[in-house]
Amino acid sequence: MKRRVYEFMTRDLSAAVEHMTLREVTELLSRRQLVSLPIVNTFNQVIGYITEDMIIRAVFPERLDPDNITISLDKFRQVIKRIGDIGTIEIATIMDPHPVTVQEDTLIADAVDLIINRGLHSISVVRDSLLVGTVTRASLCRFLIDSNKL
Amino acid sequence: MILTITLNVALDHLIYVPHLVPNSINRIERSTIIPGGKGINIAASLAVLEDEVIATGFIGGKDSIFIEQVLQKLGVTTNFIYIDDEIRTDTYIVEQKSNTNTLIIEAGVYIKSSYVKNFLENYKRVLNNVHTVIIAGSVPPGIYPDFVAELADIAQFHDKTVVINCREDILNIVCPHKHFNIVKPDVRDTAHFMGLSTKNHQHRLKMGKAVLDQGADIFALHIEEFHYFIYTRDQVLEVFSKKKDMTPVSLVGIEDSFLAGFSKCITRKMPLEEAAKYGLATAIATGLSLNNYPDSYQEVKKHMKQLEIRTIK
């Protein structure tokens, strides 16, 4: 499979910046129906990423059980209160500062390898270190099925 | 890469009827809803011309993701600021028998200052990706024309080529004493600019001189569907189609496509004549399309052969 990332990446530059608050990033994710976002600096270079998981862990770290996401009403109230408490913290404190990025001409097979083997929701695509797009699991599946390359 | 700014994004609802009869039931033959607004149309055309383009502005409501997906499918990179409210819908009634276009344009939704702040931060970041900024269209409530001047200042500070395509009320505030690479007024409402008629040769020369004296490198003026004048300090060009019987399917996006094709060539340092022809070919391809951008790059190239260019000066 010699196809390249630029053929199917999502051409969107949605990103957060490190001084944004947890609440602002949560709103951004929710509005855009995304599960993760790259974090960029003032030069539009990718310096980290944040996922819904990271936000949930930040809000409710001691009770997080990946196999059982059902929570009681009391716990839910606790979560809401916690969001109120920590919503103002900057995402720089909880983001992963080691983003996984690929160049536009990266082979699709290599992008698949990164996403699957490292359990990532998405990876940022860069050109000369600047953000130019995103590869998500959804865009990858759509491309593979549409182009009948499976 | 080129950045297009559309502060007042719209959904364009194109309604095709044989003949519109007021005060009666009109049956629609065909209708389509597409992302619109001048900067959006320019971005879509640039993508069809296989140029790299980023579209930014404010979008909101249930159709936001639809707008992004349509543009991304064309090859446009999206970079919008999301707002809470639904964006405007502009309605174009195209009467096919008489080739009449009726436009019903909404003012747009109020843009809160917090969104403007986010936009500015995002704009400064994305400027790192581009060599040219095209600011096009109206400003929605909540944003003042001074903001357009601020955007131009920031782009110029970062040594970007700046193109502006707005109505006269905005240009009057933004243009004086600023250096723009290309100025194209939106004269659809009145066919007048600076109190002068776009239909009169002497008037056109006066307005061309006035805009260039204000600091623009190039002044592009639309006369009718497929007819433009281009003014620089050294040259005045007239470009038009040799085919006189061409009837556009609709007028939506024609002028924006001209600016897309023209700007693409100017930013690539191509000769002015070539840029004018390329712009007009793009406009014709859009005029003969059901969309607000050309159907294909091949269509644009096909129309290059039927153009006439005249050097006035």
Order of helices and strands of chain B: EEEHEHEEEEHEHEHEEEHEEEHHHE
Shape label of chain B = globular
Number of strands of chain B: 17
Low-pLDDT segments, ≥5 res of chain B: none
Return Rg of chain A in Å: 17 Å
Given the structure, what is the number of helices of chain A?
Answer: 5
Number of helices of chain B: 9
Biggest interface, CB < 8 A: A-B, 18 and 16 residues
Largest sheet of chain B: 11 strands, mixed
The oligomeric status of these chains comes to heterodimer
Question: How would you state the average pLDDT of chain B, rounded?
Answer: 93
**Roughly how much helix do the residues of chain A carry, as a percent range?**
25-40%
Could you tell me the strand content of chain A as a percent range? 15-25%
What strand order characterises the main sheet of chain A? 1-2-3
Radius of gyration of chain B: 18 Å
Distance between the termini of chain B: 32 Å
How many angstroms separate the termini of chain A? Answer: 9 Å
Count of distinct strands of chain A: 6
SS-derived structural category of chain A = alpha/beta
The major β-sheet of chain A equals: 3 strands, mixed
**What structural class do the secondary elements of chain B suggest?**
alpha/beta
How would you characterize this protein structure?
The complex is a heterodimer of chains A (150) and B (313). Chain A is an alpha/beta fold and 150 residues long. Helix content of chain A is 35%, strand content 19%. Chain A is built from 5 helices and 6 strands; from the N terminus they run E-H-E-E-H-H-E-H-E-E-H. Chain A has helices spanning 22-32, 52-59, 73-86, 108-117, 137-146; strands at 16-17, 36-40, 46-51, 101-103, 122-127, 130-136. Chain A has a 3-stranded mixed beta sheet. The mean pLDDT of chain A is 84. Chain B has 313 residues and is α/β, with parallel strands linked by helices. Chain B is 34% helix and 27% strand. Chain B contains 9 helices and 17 strands. Chain B has helices spanning 38-48, 64-74, 113-126, 145-157, 168-174, 201-213, 254-267, 272-287, 297-303; strands at 2-6, 10-17, 30-36, 53-60, 77-78, 81-83, 88-95, 100-104, 132-136, 161-165, 182-183, 192-193, 196-197, 218-224, 227-231, 236-241, 307-311. In chain B, the strands form 3 sheets. In chain B, strands 1, 4, 5, 6, 9, 10, 11, 14, 15, 16 and 17 form an 11-stranded mixed beta sheet that branches. In chain B, strands 3-2-7-8 form a 4-stranded mixed beta sheet. Chain B has a two-stranded antiparallel ribbon with strand order 12-13. In chain B, helix 4 (145-157) links the parallel strand 9 (132-136) and strand 10 (161-165). In chain B, helix 7 packs antiparallel against helix 8 (272-287) and helix 8 (272-287) crosses helix 9. The A-B interface holds A 10-14, 17, 28, 31-33, 40, 42-44, 130-133 and B 54, 65, 68, 72, 75-79, 82, 121, 124-126, 128-129.
